[in-house]
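ok so i was messing around last nite and threw this chain in just to see what happens. nothing serious, just curious
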Amino acid sequence: MTEPIAPAHPSNIVSFTNEWSVLLECAAPKHDHQKLGSLLPSVDWARLLVLAEEHGITGHLASGLRDVEEELVPPQVTQSLADRQRAQIFFTMCLTAELFRILERFTAEGIAALVIKGPVLAVRAYPDPTMRSYADLDLLVRQRDIRRATELMCAAGFAPAVPLRAIDAGRIPGQYLFSEPDSRRIVELHNDRTLRYFPRRLPLEEFFARQIRMKLDAREVPALSVEDELVLICIHGAKHFWERLMWIADVAGLVTRQTGIDWDCVANSAKAVGAERMLHTGICLASDLLSVQLPDKVQATVQADLATARLADQVCKRLPAAGHAPPSLFQRAIFRMRMRGGGFISGPAYLLRLSLSPTEEDWVADPEAEVRRHGFLDAVRRPFRLVRKYGRGGKT
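result:
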């Protein structure tokens, strides 16, 4: 029986050349097996496993190591990766089964929903969907359906983070989160009012109009078009400062595997929400770090956006630490404004809106209180909470 590897403490995660090079090679859609094999003899395996876990690419690492000579990988590493992936596969199977049940309940009640990220992204971006780990389910649901959807989720045994009384009071959270007691299953409902990090309000009806049906475990589920999904995951990566390699690997995998992408539609979708630079940064990172080949026209457009290269360079300097070397409050603000792009007014306006748009973390204690009376107070409280939260320099 192999002995387990004792992982290093996450606080020790910094940029280590060999381990980071291995992760990049494994996260790339096309591995260089010879290069990967030459890197392995000098890696610190405990550190490599921790880095892979922190970056959400344990599945990518396991897949990459299967393609090298067996004697290059210690048996305990092979066993550790197999154990982790087995646990992840079982968990995602449970999530997928729950997804089917939720969609059936919603459909029966006339509630339309679109599956985003998670299982559909795993199928779209990777030849083996089990490579991609995810911890929750994300659905797009119209705001008018949120109350009934919450009632259905409660009837299914989920506990809502946003109670019905807060919904009735008109409060809009960062997401409508539901957790199942005694399990790790989490479901989040989103819409055009909760997805605040879209620079402009998400055109939800257009997303629904462009939806497609895609197969997931031999069943069809409603999903975003590939073009809208690409824009969404780039905005999501920008929201989190691209601090995990998994999000860049998602962009790389989606662009590589989905050969029929309509890049004009991608550009139009990004332009509609003011996310051109967020899109450019995402595909720039996928190209520079993971060797993704872009169409000549797309490559030229990205290169013409000079701010994109500077932002990508900032991301690359912090990326290996997986969020354990977070930007300062000032750096966060500047990054937000530059990521928005669009001139001297758009960036500061975007930052101001994010700073003054309260979520459930900013709400006053009484969620039943009249929303207009406390909406102003919630907005005033938010900047102070953000300073307390991010001014300490903790992991984002």
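not much to say yet. The two ends are 38 Å apart (CA to CA).
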